[in-house]
């Protein structure tokens, strides 16, 4: 009897999900007609034990132009807004995972994959930022980014060896997009919250480190500070004979 009670208690979360109905994922007809959602949603359901269906009308979560960039195809980058419930957050987390990305790219109805989970930094960048204060940006960069990156000479001995310095990042042609949209670039999504932009962490997958919480104004200030940093001198390109 005790064993039977334990089994019933373990099944209660799944029954609760079933009673609440499936996760209704809203998407434009073009995305539904492509067949991608019919390919990925059952695999997500198998992983998480919650049914998900694609609809063209209002839903619990939405594919479109708002939210986090998750994959590219049909000539555009598709974003996903998870909505307030736990189901949408779980789907977003799954789409960003390795298995979710492989599932998207494994959809090849005609032998070729029409969708890619690789999102270019400029496509995952933040909305247009307000004018930033570089003085405040230096302070914020040292507090938030200095945990991993060398920001300037004042924390040159505190950065992580495998993490690029701000001066190194400034050598990249897309440095501004990388700073403005850093929270969408791995590994930042797992521990970063941008007020009013990113969804809350899934309660079953909390941040692995002390969370980093910033505003768009903070990001604008850090980006403005980075603009004044001289790019690192990497020397002349290596020449071979």
Give structural notes.
The protein is an alpha/beta fold and 241 residues long. Helix content is 38%, strand content 13%. It has nine helices and eight strands. The protein has helices at 2-20, 29-34, 36-48, 86-96, 98-105, 134-145, 166-169, 175-180, 216-227; strands at residues 23-26, 52-55, 61-64, 68-73, 76-81, 115-116, 192-194, 212-214. A six-stranded mixed β-sheet has the order 2-1-3-5-4-6, covered by helices on one side. A hairpin with a 2-residue loop joins β4 and β5. α6 crosses α9. The radius of gyration is 21 Å and the shape is elongated. The model is unreliable at 4-19 and 122-127 (pLDDT under 50).
* Mean of all residue-level pLDDT scores: 84
In this structure, how is the largest beta sheet organized? 6 strands, mixed
Helix content: 25-40%
The first-to-last residue Cα distance is 79 Å
Oligomer: single chain
Measured by DSSP, the beta-strand proportion falls in 5-15%
Structural class, please?
alpha/beta
Shape descriptor: elongated
Please compute the radius of gyration using only Cα atoms: 21 Å
> How many beta-strand runs?
8
* Number of helices in the DSSP assignment: 9
Order of helices and strands: HEHHEEEEHHEHHHEEH
Low-confidence stretches: 4-19, 122-127
Lateral arrangement of strands in the main beta sheet: 2-1-3-5-4-6
